[in-house]
Specification:
It contains 13 helices and 8 strands. It is 52% helix and 13% strand. The protein has a single domain, classed as TIM Barrel (Alpha-Beta Barrel), CATH 3.20.20.220. Bound molecules: dihydroflavine-adenine dinucleotide (FDA).
């Protein structure tokens, strides 16, 4: 299983296969299990449908590691359009942004100014920008940038980030972010990391996830518990029950197309649920990470393709 996970993560970085897949119609069809569509309009349509089921949304315009300033600005433009459309259509949605898509690896100042502009735009509508967390080489810079933007006048509460339970450093990061009042999405972590920075064993990641969830739920800030793991969800509910934490003080988050049954169940039980909805032509690395999480998805998707 660990071998398959590594294989899919390696494939997620394969440029040739990426170019080929993203241009082929079969590839695009395959990706539709986890990706809302290729265009902004597809994402907005899905967001509206998800809202109708009583769930909030976070929209992700797919793409990472841009190679030019112009590309970073083009990626940012899509997010500005999304923020306008969310407000105009009164959708219950925010946006999720990757700093490498905003040029972080080219010029940190560029990525910071783009992220700040997006946050200012979101704040003008009372909306929110979530900065996704990428691999561990970017954890420190991401947290520092989010903290600086959050500290700017008028931007408090308009930007948040993600903490990965597989990293040893995460408890300390949470303490710092929470003391600033910054909203956190807690996830297990989707990248391949060495044992020097991350728990190699799933059992340890899960134990850390449960511990960190407790810290988040007890803090006065509204956080997101992002997982499809029924054990993590049960532990969250049990902690909240035991500590009399109202269900309105946090939200569960899941990915579009993953465990839709569980998403609906949680809404029915009265929990806040947000669905992460990715869209766009650059779906390949995202899709491969989803296969890495659950290699059985390959068979699942193949079966559905044959049926259609
Ligand atoms: P785990 O991987 O242990 O899976 C538990 C169970 O969930 C599986 O047995 C299966 O039933 C189901 N499941 C999980 N993944 C599935 C899949 N792809 N398809 C079908 N079923 C699946 N990571 C990151 O590094 N940076 C980030 O910014 C984010 N952002 C983010 C946002 C949101 C809303 C979510 C839900 C997740 C992320 N992630 C992320 C990804 C996260 O780190 C992690 O890789 C996945 O959520 C899988 O971990 P689980 O907690 O679901 O548990």
């Amino acid at each position: 299983m660990a071998l398959l996970r590594s294989a899919f993560i390696a494939l997620s970085r394969n440029r040739r296969l990426r170019r080929f897949s993203e241009r082929s119609s079969i590839g695009t069809k395959l990706s539709s299990r986890f990706v809302a569509g290729m265009e902004i309009e597809d994402a907005l349509r899905v967001a509206e449908a998800v809202n109708k089921q009583g769930m909030a949304v976070s929209l992700d315009s797919l793409g990472e590691s841009v190679t030019s300033e112009a590309e970073a600005h083009r990626a940012a433009d899509i997010y500005h359009k999304l923020l306008d459309a969310i407000a105009a259509r009164k959708l219950n949605a925010n946006v999720s942004v990757k700093l490498t898509q905003m040029g972080l690896e080219l010029d940190r100042g560029l990525a910071e100014s783009i992220a700040q502009n997006l946050t200012e735009h979101a704040a003008s509508f009372g909306n929110f920008v979530r900065i996704d967390m990428e691999d561990s080489s970017l954890t420190q810079v991401t947290i520092e940038m989010v903290r600086r933007i959050h500290a700017r006048p008028g931007l408090s509460g308009a930007i948040g980030t993600v903490i990965q339970a597989y990293l040893y450093r995460s408890e300390a990061d949470i303490a710092q972010l929470v003391s600033d009042g910054i909203r956190i999405r807690l996830c297990k972590g989707a990248y391949k990391e060495p044992a020097s920075v991350a728990f190699p064993k799933k059992a340890d990641v899960d134990a850390n996830y449960v511990r960190l969830t407790g810290i988040l739920l007890e803090s006065p800030v509204y956080h997101g518990i992002a997982t499809h793991d029924v054990n993590m969800i049960a532990a969250t509910k049990a902690f909240a029950r035991e500590h009399k934490i109202d269900a309105g003080r946090y939200e569960f988050q899941m990915l579009y197309g993953v465990r839709r049954d569980l998403q609906r169940d949680l809404v029915r039980e009265g929990f806040n649920m947000r669905v992460y909805v990715p869209f766009g032509r650059e779906w390949y690395p995202y899709f491969m990470r989803r296969l890495a999480e659950r290699p059985a998805n390959v068979f699942f998707i193949a079966k559905n393709m044959l049926r259609n």
